[in-house]
Specification:
By secondary structure, the chain is mainly α. The chain is 67% helix and 3% strand. A two-stranded antiparallel sheet has the order 1-2. Keywords: Membrane, Transmembrane, Transmembrane helix.
Length: 137
């Protein structure tokens, strides 16, 4: 037999964010989130890649599918390459990666639903850790 369950209490959910506050995060947590955000920011490079590939294939062919399919293929190849390359790019030049991340977040309004303010505070927290300053509480 199936037992009836008691109804759940009508308690509203808290409005607290699902992410930890930046000030309470450790260096590995800050770098992991920044690395993930940088991976999302690198994917924004697919837009100019698509537009460039679309314009170059326009010169060669005029039918719509002959023009769009090669551009889409180039985007998928570019996506695969960027997925493989973003971690070495982040490790190779982290300051340049942080600058790129801030610019893309500022231009796009957010990256992966992370507001620009959180991106800048993550970058500032990482800089404090790298300078050897203790985290603010």
């Amino acid at each position: 037999m199936i037992e009836e369950q008691e109804p759940l209490p009508d308690v509203p959910e808290s409005d607290e964010p699902y992410r930890r506050p930046v000030d309470t995060m450790s260096l590995p947590q800050v770098e992991a989130e920044l690395r993930d955000l940088f991976g999302g920011a690198v994917m924004y490079l697919l837009v100019p890649i698509f537009l460039l590939s679309l314009s170059t294939t326009t010169i060669v062919a005029t039918p719509f599918f002959v023009r769009v399919l090669p551009a889409a293929a180039i985007v998928f190849v570019g996506y695969w390459i960027l997925q493989k390359a973003y971690v070495p790019m982040f490790k190779g030049a982290p300051e340049t990666a942080m600058q790129y991340l801030r610019v893309v977040s500022w231009l796009g309004g957010s990256i992966m639903s992370t507001p620009y303010e959180r991106v800048t505070s993550l970058c500032a927290q990482r800089a404090r850790f790298m300078d050897g300053d203790p985290p603010r509480s």
